[in-house]
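Re: weekly structure request thread

Next one in the queue (371 aa):
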Amino acid sequence: MKHAIFWLAPSPTARTDLSAAVERHLLVPELSRRVQLIRTTPTAKTGRGLKIMVALRALGELNSAIRYESGAPVIHLHLDEGASFYRDAVLAARARAGGGNIVISVHGRHFGQFAAQDPRTVRTMFSRASRIIALTPNQRSELAPYVDHSRLTVLPHGVVLPKVVPLQQHEEVPVVLYPSGGDVDAGSELLVKAVGALPRGVKARWLLAGEGDLDTMARALRNTRRGPVEVVGWLRGSRAERIWARTNIVVLPALRESLPIWVVEAMARARPVLASTAGGLPDAVGAGGGWIVADNHPTTWTRALRTAFASRPDWEHIGDVGRTRAEALFDGDRVAERLLEIYSEVAGGRRTPVLLRLPDAMRAIRAHLPG
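Done, posted below.
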């Protein structure tokens, strides 16, 4: 029997590289004998016409998958807000009509706000699902008004836990990694104001990662004269490991978030985290793995940065606490086991999973499939 894996998401970015290893580690061992990999979104930013064409192709391929399965498949949708939600709603309706058991994982950082604007459609979408998966307890509370409690569960991102590289603190100033989400909710302006208010003698080496207009942020940070600034962009492959090895601490001043993969990756690498109260950040960092900043006022963040920098002798211990927490919450094997339990629960242990998720990891997965 052929198993179909559908990868469905908004326009992919390099962040899917972080998911590729996870999906390879978690899902392929269970489904790798006959895996059909189907691209369901464009590989780059494209016009609306091509996106519609690809979405229609995805619908046709889903029809084929349902038609040729011997039992009702499990359809795992990974939802974001906006236009992609409505596209996925069409696929969910088709899957349900074909007898599929639907599992929904909710991602987007603005999904709670989106649901409040269109609660009827969100409730209809969720009513078709056998299980709704939230990334954090905070997100579960956010989704509770739209779904029966018995069908709502929490399952965070899973990562392949890397070997921990000890903190390198030979530089005179700490090395701070700021991962940007690419929009105003990433908190870049907040961080620049907070850094600018630091005393003249408090400096760091700032590494700007992720997406968005990092060059503009770099210029603004350089103008504060609080240490050298490097734009490192997306972290991939061996270069990513070199950047993580240099990093002493990660700062996440997000104004709105769900559960960013960056915090999971930082904790898995035993790097202390200084984060806002947005979304699932407090749930992830917990007690002892870093610092949670009480509000989004620049003065509060300036004080938090000074506190974190003054704790430099304790960073190794704080990072170890975060790593222990990552092993308990985000270990890929444990997340995989729970995900497969969910599939079994909704399908009665008899049916074949059909997964819908991110497109860019296909090449990585294909490379690790048995011949």
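Residues 48-68 form the longest helix (21 residues). The radius of gyration is 21 Å.
Next request, please.
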